[in-house]
Amino acid sequence: MEEQNLNQGAATPGSHETSYIPTQPYCSGLETVWTGISNSLDYNLLRNFEAPTSHDFPSGYLACDEFFKSLGQESFRSAFRLMEWQYDQRREAQMILPFLYIGPTSSARDLDFVKREGITYLLGIRGPLPYHARIVDADKCAAMHGIESGNVIVVDDQDLIKSLPDIIRGINEHICCCPAHHTGATTASGNDIRSKPWKKVLIFCETGNERSAAVAIAYLMAILNYDVQTAFINVQGRRLCCNLPESLKRVLQTFGSILAARRDVMKAQD
Description:
Blueprint: H1 2-7, H2 30-33, H3 67-71, E1 94-97, E2 100-104, H4 105-108, H5 111-117, E3 121-126, H6 130-135, H7 139-145, E4 148-153, H8 160-175, E5 201-205, H9 211-223, H10 228-236, H11 246-269
Parallel strand pairs: 2-5, 3-4, 3-5
Antiparallel strand pairs: 1-2
Helix pairs in contact: 9-10, 9-11
């Protein structure tokens, strides 16, 4: 018996391989590393948005000191309409917050939609290749309405991480109604900003389902203090066709860690 135990796992005559003795079930380890957006979404996390109760970031990092006060609580209230979703709506833009929309390029080029919704800023998220500038572009629509437009060029999904704070700050500077940022501009429909509706931003990418959605999710994480899972579900609850690749999910998880570290530093200084 002792000799048999000693020889267990040794190579058999004429073979260069040893017998495999399983000690525990195989595991890739991915589940212990990836704790971000689950493939099985918990729609119990869907909620009607309300204004945040705190903003634990340095002044000017994501918004000026007067940002929330200048907009008022109503600017952050938004109900989800998951049960009203229809498949054809994937070609349209959806409102995430009263001042923030996401959608495909076609929605940003829709002159009637931009005018009807009072969009004041068309923000495209696109790649670096020459044809991306043709596919993801709405500058002509913006020029025809006399509103602002901009494009953020990201080399890949990982490159988006370092751009997110600047994107969020740019959105907030555009919609902020404080004296430093308010310019008395008009919407595409000709309404004076001071009489409301507020300025509105449409974030778009080619399909409206990936990078533009990721930016909206990051915005909710930063401004409404949502974790990545809750933010994702609440964006998808308003635009059901959102479908992030794993690379973008990891980008958002990393961004969440950056936000948490920033908040911890601010709280430690109080």
